[in-house]
Amino acid sequence: MTGGKMPVPLLLLTSVYALLAISGLLYQQAVVASILLLLMVLATIGRQKSAWLLMLLIAAVMSLAGVGLALLLNMSPDDTAPAWLTRLQAWSMLQQMLLISGLLLLAGIQLWVALMPTVRQWFKPKMNFNIIQS
Fold this sequence. Notes:
The chain has helices at 8-26, 31-45, 49-74, 83-89, 93-114, 117-122. By secondary structure, it is mainly alpha-helical. The mean pLDDT is 81.
């Protein structure tokens, strides 16, 4: 992508991140994670290379790991499970699998967007400060 426009999948992903961060701050849930997510949105909009290299890829891998951990904790006995998980275990198996498959789908889309060539190229700097050019 040669222009200065943000790729559409990246724009949608940053919009989702911004909505999650703002709703987390408004409802005062996971405030530190919401602030970090908002910083990631600002770094992505600012075309910081570390935003793609570190933040987007690590966030995608961490969300996949979180879904895997939720699956593992879902199979744990009731006495060792956290409170939010005991509420989840009260759901039917179909509801649990729909939730986990939806989270897996979102994490996969997040990883797919982070690894797109247009997104990777958008984070490459366009300016060349090399004064000795042939």
